[in-house]
């Protein structure tokens, strides 16, 4: 939706330049006007306002405070901002530092230095509210424009969370106050008589823009209370979407503004508040409302209920006085205080308990007739009624003054009851924060608000909704008995020699490590993109080295030596189709799950548009050659993105063949890959020896010579470190078999030799020696036939004649043709012979799968 | 083993005999169920240790069991698994993914013809479906990502080890990019959920089929089963396979039967039969087949096996299939085959057509007009087509509409020795035909 709106927005300065710098040819302004063409609304954003800034992901705009506005020499409108970061912008591993649940509306005062605070003014979406809170405070509940009210409790400097300094706190609060004033003045700025039509316009625009599904939801609302709350939620979103443009909607923010007390809310605000909110409810319940009036008035008449519900929802606003009041209530009810403390203590797992305590407490403190649920539904009905009346009034063209008769207690009540409804937002944070994937898609992040209090009280988290694989966490069952730890030296050695064991350091790849590290580091510091191609035969430590580099870089980034970055890895072998690469990259980056073609479009957009706060992405493409397609568009795109100006993408491509770019890539792809290449040479025997001994440091399990033998053997064959480790592992097993008593034994030459023989000896000779007599004669007959014909291919019929002759010589009973065919197919299944399809019967052609010399050698020995 | 002895035992109850037959049928037909291991103690120990380490220590491994068909690969694995399940450290601690269609399923290359099907089967057998919920398993890519994610989450110490058994391993090699093998081996070589991948194959060259990066990830553990026993052990196996178990209900009969088997194994003719079979193949399945044929001869009136039964079974076992068909042919068809044999001799195995065969046959008829009825050409053609259907003759190319049937080039799928052998035993063969078969120039 943002993108759709963006196309229609015009940005212009508000007022005259405050000051201008002649040298730099910049001029500063105190505000910016955002005019939407389609809805003919203007929004003024001034210095100190809180704003949403377009983010990487259209659904997740960044939160910031406007610090400065200026026009630079090139007539570009620029803005300087103070960032706030959302929870999902904080690395996963750091989130646990918080030690508490964080709602979606909470942001952190950003003190990370790496981000660019100078942004283009055109990226500003709209203004919002950011309210400073003390650490222990519950989030106040604001229903009407949830989407654009954020709370800040702590600051985040890239390493740890800190409580807001009093200085910052007051500054933020100041900004809020000021904002309220400005909002008032801006109301005066726009003539009030165009107020209603403008609003109507925008509303209809938005209405038409929203999907029919939402409307359905609205209609459904009559069926169940929980659903209606969903519909309400959606309505409030709608409000959120358009209220920056309409002055009426902006006024709603003043509900929380410190300059006004709750009681002074104007009727027209109630109109703004309830009009959107309730027109889905109102039309469907025209008859029921009359009766409900009494009921609600009863509720309103009973004074203890309002403070009571306030108590439950902790606070309705965050004005200082209210904070005071809040603490008063805390003092008054010791039970809640305890509850509050316990909440602080066991934020993670204690939520449910708190919930129940709330649940039990409520009926006790309230009049027993009203369960929270009924209270809420009543409130809904009330608001429905109010809405109906207002719409009536509106249609009659009455002035806003008349609307004042709707008592402020009404409005405050309805707001508080709605807060009540939202009370469960902090109650169900577990679901919200659990999976990153849900979190990043706003639709599902809003979901928890759908919970009704009744449901949460029952502690049944969404019964009946099947877990979709999207957020299902697949897991292999846990083992029942604990895995045994290695008991002997040999077992310990075997564990360390397993390829999966991660050594503390990677010996013998220091140079390569340094090269790759320097490459990535320099790109990170520059904030640019680039590609590197890494080649080498299997088992030479390519992937391990790259991972080690990433690990070190992450370490450095944590220590603030480097700007933070995102790390994405894809493996050609783990993709079913080259185009799936897009899907995986996008899922890693944003958590969205889309089709391959759509993912390609989104990624291209992501990497080609400037994102002020987007971190550099380090992408590892393992088994690059498998991303080959006929048009090579996957490879092309991968290597094209880093060349884009704003991509901030560093690609490390890994493959086996050194000349892959020349061999399989088209020129345009190879050219984009660039010339930064590195090849991993196979390990020499000395390096292999060092690898083994570094892994076995402190464990005396191998003879020195035995290690050397393995290294030399493997270095001569392939230089594959995996092979080397496997042989050593096998040797420890052989050693264990061989030892009779429980005396400690170390792996000697003999064991290693046996392991090597086992792994590298050709199975053919052994297979021939263990074949049956006639099978051996058949092989001899084949050799004889080859010699006679001079061609290394014969038909079974020819071989059969030789076979019969050989049998006669040996005095054996000659086999029948069926038996010969059986022998032939058996040898063919073992692949000692290569045979044709058997339907040719006697005319089937036969060839040896190994050299004649091998066959003769195997047969002669006996 | 005199006839008198046999007569004495003629009074065995039918229940007893049917019991005997049941036992042997089970033993010979379900050759993987309770079969004993012969001559593979070392391999057994190796595999058992390997799997034990996986379950107890959570060590990832990969291994191939290679051996010719019928060498007991599956039997070995089943034995190891059975013994492993009985160990108390292992109970409930190993998830097995076996794929095959039978009661004891294995991941078989014949059933899981591509990675997509194999992945679904793995997910099913790991019972990850309940995590998946009501999801319709649509895309292969999602499946793979899902499974890899599931396996990646585990670690050595806490996750339940998984055993993947890939039957007909060589067929998995032909899957596109060897994705499944790469991923399985990659998991076995990285710090994820402990897995052990066991492949069963009869191909000796299977390692050469692996792609280089897949091969590098494979641990190169190969367990070879070679049937490396000699004839003495073979006799022992024969005795073990044929003896009745101790828990047989009728003890006296079991005693008698086992004594008889002991006698049989020392009998010269039986040894000859076994020696012959042993020379042809060491495969235990063919021994089972032979014994099955022999045991079928056991009836109430003939309760104990004799050497003659075994000989008869061996004869049946060895008969040439094509020669059997020749037995049932008419004289005209025999004549045509003889004509073809002469053509083969004359033209040194070059293909022939019907017209040539017919001419050859006519020559014979003209000389021996008194003894053979001169069939008309369509009748001869019909006989020739019958031979074609029996696949004694095979056309070189597919019959087309253009080519006349008489001139289609053919090849004879019989060797001359087979024809001569078949003629020897052909009932009521005319002497003239026999003479003609011996020599195409017999009329001279």
UniProtKB/TrEMBL annotation, chain A:
BAH domain ranges (all copies): 43-167
Keywords annotated in UniProt: ATP-binding, DNA replication, DNA-binding, Magnesium, Metal-binding, Nucleotide-binding, Nucleus, Phosphoprotein
InterPro entries noted in UniProt: AAA+_ATPase, AAA_lid_10, ATPase_AAA_core, BAH_dom, BAH_sf, Cdc6_C, ORC1/CDC6, P-loop_NTPase
Compositional bias annotation for Polar residues: 238-247, 355-369
PROSITE patterns recorded: BAH
Feature: compositional bias, Basic and acidic residues: 344-354
Record flagged with keyword Metal-binding: yes
Compartments, record wording: Nucleus
One GO CC term on file: nuclear origin of replication recognition complex
Region (Disordered): 205-256, 344-374, 398-477
Domain of life, source organism: Eukaryota
Sequence similarity: Belongs to the ORC1 family.
Subunit structure: Component of ORC, a complex composed of at least 6 subunits: ORC1, ORC2, ORC3, ORC4, ORC5 and ORC6. ORC is regulated in a cell-cycle dependent manner. It is sequentially assembled at the exit from anaphase of mitosis and disassembled as cells enter S phase. Interacts with CDC6 and KAT7/HBO1. Interacts with LRWD1 predominantly during the G1 phase and with less affinity during mitosis, when phosphorylated. ORC is composed of six subunits.
Function: Component of the origin recognition complex (ORC) that binds origins of replication. DNA-binding is ATP-dependent, however specific DNA sequences that define origins of replication have not been identified so far. ORC is required to assemble the pre-replication complex necessary to initiate DNA replication.
Protein name: Origin recognition complex subunit 1
Automatic annotation (TrEMBL), chain B:
UniProt cross-references to Gene3D superfamilies, sorted A to Z: P-loop containing nucleotide triphosphate hydrolases (3.40.50.300)
GO biological process: DNA replication initiation
This protein's GO CC annotations: cytoplasm; nuclear origin of replication recognition complex
Protein name, per record: Origin recognition complex subunit 4
Domain spans labelled AAA+ ATPase: 59-329
Superkingdom: Eukaryota
Family: Belongs to the ORC4 family.
Subcellular location: Nucleus
Lineage, highest ranks first: Eukaryota, Metazoa, Chordata, Craniata, Vertebrata
InterPro entries given in the database record: AAA+_ATPase, AAA_16, ORC4, ORC4_C, P-loop_NTPase
MF terms in GO: ATP binding; DNA replication origin binding
Organism encoding this protein: Platysteira castanea
Subunit (UniProt): Component of ORC, a complex composed of at least 6 subunits: ORC1, ORC2, ORC3, ORC4, ORC5 and ORC6. ORC is regulated in a cell-cycle dependent manner. It is sequentially assembled at the exit from anaphase of mitosis and disassembled as cells enter S phase. Interacts with DBF4. Interacts with POLQ.
Alphabetic keyword roster: ATP-binding, DNA replication, DNA-binding, Nucleotide-binding, Nucleus
